[in-house]
UniProtKB/TrEMBL annotation:
PROSITE patterns: AA_TRANSFER_CLASS_5, RHODANESE_3. This is cysteine desulfurase. It catalyses: (sulfur carrier)-H + L-cysteine = (sulfur carrier)-SH + L-alanine. One of its GO terms (molecular function) is transaminase activity. The keyword Translocase does not apply. It comes from Idiomarina piscisalsi. Keywords: Aminotransferase, Iron, Iron-sulfur, Metal-binding, Pyridoxal phosphate, Transferase.
Amino acid sequence: MKPIDIQTNGNELYLDCNATTPVLPQIAEAVSHTMETVFGNPSSSHITGLKARYILDTTRQMAREVVGLARGRLIFTSGATEGIQTAVVSAIAHAMKTRPSAKYLLYGATEHKAVPQALEHWNELLGLHAELKAIPVDRDGRFDLDFIARHVSDAAMICTMAVNNETGVIQDLNALERTIRTHNASIPWMVDCVQALGKLQFSLDDTSIDYAPFSGHKLYGPKGIGFMAVREKAPFTPLLIGGGQESGQRSGTENLPGIAALNALFELLITENEILHSDQRLKEYRRQLSESLKAAFPTLVFNHSFELSVPTTLNFSVRGVASRDIMDVFDACGIRVSGGSACSSKVVGSFVLRAMGLDGWQSESAIRMSFGPATSQQDIDEACYRIRQAGDALKHSCLLIADTNNDNDAALDGVVQLKYDTHCCYLVIDKLAKELAVIDPHPALSARIENIVNCRGYKVKTVLSTDSGSEISEAAKLLRGILRLDAKTHDVFGWPGVKERNCDAVPVEAQADIDGCIKVGERRLFRLAGEQPVFVLSEPARLKSEVKTDFVFSGSAPLNSYQSLVSVNALVCPKEDPEHHLVYSLCETMGDCDPGADVNIPIGETDEFWCRDDLVVIDVRERQEHVVSDIPCSAEVVNVPVTEAIQFIHDHQELKDRDIICVCRSGNRSAVVANVLQRHGFKRTRHLMGGLALLSSPAAKAV
């Protein structure tokens, strides 16, 4: 067979094969052929049914050959999750009869969540009430054999995995077997083999593994089909009853098109071909990708040992850069990868990397890049090129420090809002003067702020906190140390002493109520008098003796404590923003503003907008996404990242009467910005539901 290119789809380069894989053409053809011509029920006795039965029986035999199972059960399932449930039900039901006093249900601390959740569910439902106990792993992700030795004799079941889905770490199954069987010869043992199919050689008959679930869609098959190997004499309780299919072991009419897909897949695994590449070839792919990643991201570290992992998985973190930022710019470059954790403003981190004992920043910023055995050299070459493109974009945006100062026209200026979870931190930047002040930094944002300062060569005037006793105050203290600010001349909030805060201008509304000021370029940052710090930022002074206040940083101060002391048009910047309001007007703090209108635009209603040259399209993606992925339309396109939306609202009041469409990759960020603009008087603002991702998809074009 000749090699084929299955990774790219137009501009898409799919490198998330541990999540799922595209379906190979010959496998899709087997599915289609079966649905169209071999549609009989395998339980029927007529010829159409017998043809279906032949596919079923030959595929089962091929599966046995692939996994080395001459004896025992080989059952077709809907996927690995069903296989895991069946194994857990079988083991716990057996324990209820033979060892109802068993203390533990053991599972690996780095297992897929399907395993501990299945154990918890059936443990409670069947009434065993054993203690679920996670088996620790070392920094390489390998299981603690001493822990197993101490606990396995009192356990009703033990669950491990062959290959980890996040890191690709391979468990030493021989060492595991020796430890388990030395201390408990009969305990049911399940090994999750989902990520091992097509990457490791199997001979289950040579092991004492009781249950081995597999899934088709992890190796170029369709979703909804899998199989499960069960060792001879292992406890077995059917999960599905009613019909007697699979010799009574799994009822329900068999998914024959899915089984035909497995048939085509097994043929590739059994026969010599040029489609599924050798382990040596895949290791060479990994080497090329890893070198490109290290060149593009100088502070990158890999979170697993290549020697102990399958070659198709690379898990890495970039110090000082959030996984969300990397994923967004990869997506803009057409590279599809996964975060090691949920991609959201609330970064919870990878439980797998935490279990391995890696540093918090590695867990919270992890990225998983995974390819498959059918990946082509062309795909790898293109991936390496796009990785460099993504790294350059992050350097231009100051998320990475470049070897040279590649300043560009998109340098930050004005008020910039950085968020971590619900917390808001603000940078007050004067681009021309190259000066900066920081207000309420969060510890998780310190590295990013340091990168911005070093990248642009800013002079940091101060690091302020609106709370003297919080984690934020400690973060401010830490950042002052990193940026080498003289703490002796500042109070606990970061406000400078009397000698350092002489003012050449005062706010019109609060001349008698200020406690000094700090110059940031042409702007003045004032502190309003009072026990709880409230900082206000003025308009550019330019030799004025009196200035208006444009922004208020109120921290936790009561709203009524400053309303009369600032300009009526000032924007209020919150320290906490759980509802993604970003910024408030004074009327909103008093509760008497008009609500915004509906801002949603369904995908099918967008054609007229892309052809209008009187429209303003606001791309709310970050700079690094915008520069590598254009928006094809006739309208004026303005890049306003969410981080810079506050300053945009202040600077562009003239756009309040224009038709504005906000767009982003998925529609989430654009909805936030469109709602903020609506609330602040840009009443003709809407946003693109589903984002650019759906707009460019075949399904969206058909709407």
